[in-house]
Amino acid sequence: MDVLRVLIRAVDPLTREAISSRLDALPDIEVLPDEHHPPVDVVVLVAERITVEVASALRKVKATLGAPVVLIACEVSRTELLTAVECNVVAVLPRAGVTGDRIESAVRTAAGGGAVLPSKMLGELLKQVERIQREILSPNGLHTSGMTAREIDILRLMSDGLDTAEIAVKLGFSERVVKRTIFGVTSRFKLRNRPHAVAYALRTGVI
C-alpha cells in the first residue's frame, strides 16, 4: 500500500495538531515533521487569508517541495486565488465548517492530480484566465502556454511527421523562418531537440 506523505503548515499549533491527529490516524497517510524536506506528496497550509507572508510561504513550498497544496483559509479574493493557483494550490477549503473528512478527501484528490475548488471560486478563476487571455496574451500573439500561434502551428505539423521544407510550404514561410522558430521554442523551454519539443507540446496540451 502506497503511503501519502503530508506536510502540515499552520501558525496555530492547536489547529496543526488537530489536522495532524486526524490524518495520521489513517493507515495510508503519514504526517511528516514540520521541517521535512522532499519527497512530500501534499502540503496542507492553514491561513486566515493569503497575506504577503502566506504568499511567500507558498512560493517557498513550490520552489523547495514542488508538492500540490491544500489551502484552508477564511477568505480568498479573486486576485489572491490566481496567486494561490500559481503557487501550486490545487484545493481550497473554507475554514468555517471544514471537517476532517473534507480535509482527507482534499488531500487524496490533490495527491491524485485533481483539484477541489468551490464553484464560485472556479468561476472567478475562469474569469481571470479569460481576462489574461483577452488583455495580455492575445494582443501579444501568445497562447496560454507562452507560445505564439506560429510556434504552435509548426509544432503541430512536426507532430504529423512533416520536415522543415514541407512545413515551410504548408505555412508559406521560408525554411529559415521555420528553423528559427523551432530553435526559439527549444531554447526558451530548454528542450533538447525536435522530438522533445513535440513531446512537450503534447504533454502540456498545446497541440
Please provide a brief summary of the model:
With 207 residues, this protein is α/β, with parallel strands linked by helices. The protein is built from nine helices and five strands, in the order βαββαβαβαααααα.
Plain-language structure description:
The structure is a single chain. The protein has 207 residues and is an alpha/beta fold. It is built from 9 helices and 5 strands; from the N terminus they run E-H-E-E-H-E-H-E-H-H-H-H-H-H. It has helices at residues 13-24, 52-64, 78-86, 100-111, 119-137, 149-159, 164-171, 175-188, 194-203, and strands at 4-10, 29-31, 42-47, 69-73, 89-94. It has a 5-stranded parallel β-sheet, with helices on both faces. Helix 3 crosses helix 5. The longest helix is centred in the middle third of the chain and has 19 residues, at 119-137. The protein is elongated, with a radius of gyration of 21 Å. It starts with a strand and ends with a helix. The model has no long low-confidence stretch (mean pLDDT 87).
Using brief descriptors, characterize the structure shown.
single chain; 207 residues; alpha/beta; 5 strands
Question: How are the elements arranged and paired?
Answer:
Layout: E1 4-10, H1 13-24, E2 29-31, E3 42-47, H2 52-64, E4 69-73, H3 78-86, E5 89-94, H4 100-111, H5 119-137, H6 149-159, H7 164-171, H8 175-188, H9 194-203
Parallel strand pairs: 1-2, 1-3, 3-4, 4-5
